[in-house]
Amino acid sequence: MPSQRTLNRLFVLHSWAGIVTGLLMFIVCFSGAVVVFKNEIDLWANPSLAQLPRSAPPAPLDVVLGQLQARYPGATVETIALPDAVNPSYFAFVRERGAPASTRTKVALRSDTGAVVGPVDSQLGQYLRMLHVFLFFGPRWIVGFLGVAMLVLIGTGIVIHRKILAELFTQRWGRSFRVVMSDLHKSAGIWGLGFHILIAATGAWMGLAPLFEQGYKYVMTPAGSAGAKVPPPARGAGTKAAAPVLPMQSLDAMYATAQQAVPGLEARYVSLRRWTTAGADVSFTGNLRGHLASTARVDIDATTGVPKKAHDPRTQGFWSLVDGLMEPLHFGDFGGLALKWLYFVLGMTPAFLSISGTLIWLDARRQRRRDIQATPAPRAHGDSDVATAG
Amino acid sequence: MQRFFLALHATAPVALILSLLLHLRPPPGLAPLAQRPVWTVWALIGGWLLLATLTAWALRTLALWRVSLGGAGALLMVAGAVGQVRGSAQAPAMLASLAAVGLVCVGMAAFIGPQRVQAPRRKGVRPAAVVPSSATARPATDGGWRLREGSGRIVPAHLPFWWCGVLALESFRLAHIVATEPARSSGMLGLLLAFWVALPAATLRHWAPRTATLLWVLAALGYGGLAAKAGLPQWVVASALCAVTACTTAYRPLKAA
After folding, report:
1. B24 closest CB neighbour out of A45, A99, A145
2. Model pTM?
3. Interface predicted TM-score (ipTM)
4. Are A287 and A296 in contact (CB under 8 A)?
5. d(C-alpha A312, C-alpha A373), whole Å
């Protein structure tokens, strides 16, 4: 049982952590609740794709790539997204000739024939995801740190509001604003407690894991070689304007190879790098049939068709499996529409907690100021001390 | 300022829905949405700030929430109707969903109000359910300036938090903006040190000063290690800063002893 002094300090920590991170937390949680429906929103925001058929099996990848190269000669096809449970079409991210290096055009293709439909109307779902994951501009770490802050808020909240079961059902309407808000804050926090811990922990993991990974690699690298670690000039090695265009292996054959390397692989994305050059490779990333993990990946040398690297989270140890489970657990895209709605409703509760916490803090501050104005004598003494010392 | 802060919360959903409508009917002459152009981001940020400023200026707190929630509800229904008119995929389901969520927003706008809380609060009486405020827990603090007893000097109580912020910002700059080795990797480590070591040290300063001192020493050693490995002057300064903060934090328990 913590002492009153400890509780007071945890309360101060809870309040300040909440007020400092509150607005960002609200934006991230609110957008996160909406992003649960990312694929549905993307489909809905593209009326030109509404009438496209779903084909099982979809057109071969080689046909899709061929259609893209015919429609966009000289462009670089970077990624092909395969049809999924929501979107019946193929999509491709294409860097058109002469376009700025950072500009990619998202192109839709029919899943039955592989024919190019054209650029999509919008990328609304991805836009919302960019807000949730990157706050549009930043790296994912910022949201990772917010996940940790949320865990701190949850931990301190549990300790300072100890009567968890009683507070599940306590809502005193008609009392002071702060009591009403405080009851709402506590009951929303406790009803969603398990979910809040889940999304905070998974969000923190996904945001900070790359930071830890990169930091660990850096520490383990000998000091001399750290500075010498300059990326090899593979991209430009012998691939100037006159570089010969090399024949590539069939994408479908390489997909079959990838599925042999990682049994049950259901690729969501096919990424092409340095295509038609000597260093060309292709990555198949996606889910595993009958498994939650979402980080399966196979890299294949596109000139020979030989796998270079296979990542199967089921067989690569505990932490690899944990890592593979983070994204589906965080976004709730493994249990159909009902689970998505549950994630949406529960996902709104931390956004509400952020608002209610802010309102409680502001009300408490207003009250403190009123108290100070009501009892000026002791305060005046303290003020004069500071003024003298200053 | 306080109302603007609240308005930033209250108008965020409205701004997001307006941005959604912008995606459904983008203005001609701008970069196509298939290229995920940056103008959509600035439109959202600009619209959000403008809405927040206008509502904070024009509306009192309760009206601000009511208008924002009611507006969000109405705009959600408009968005659903636009999708239906344009013949989007799953348009009826989306219309029903958006209308349902919109009705919840409108319902909340109608529900909140003075009738839910006790009318004027009794002056000078604190509600029993609220944990004692930090004002009573920090007797020697005034406006963030801590009077150091007996020393005759004033040290800002929140200075260590500012150091953490500075360390985190510089680390972030090196890791994400400079983003070339060795700045990138060492910046990532610097960010981790700022968040996991320096920030807890600043937080524990008055609670467990010895632990805080230890953490500042650890941070100083960590940044020192980074300085040795990466050879960047920033880490030397960071290490010195942490060492000085460790000394000032240690000064208090020593005096108390």
Report:
1. A45
2. 0.85
3. 0.84
4. yes
5. 65
